[in-house]
Amino acid sequence: MKIIRNTFILIWRIWFFFWLICTIILVLPMLVIVISKESWYPIFFKIAHYWSKTTLLVMGFSPKVYAEENISRDKSYMFSPNHTSMIDIFLMLAITKNPFVFIGKKELVNIPVFGYIYKRTCILVDRNDVESKRSAFIEAQKRLHKGLSVCIFPEGKVPDDESIILDIFQKGAFRLAIEFNIPVVPITFYDCKKRFSYTFFSGSPGVLRVKTHQFLQTSGLSQKDKNELKNKAYQLIYSDLVTDMEK
Question: The pTM is what?
Answer without folding.
Answer: 0.92
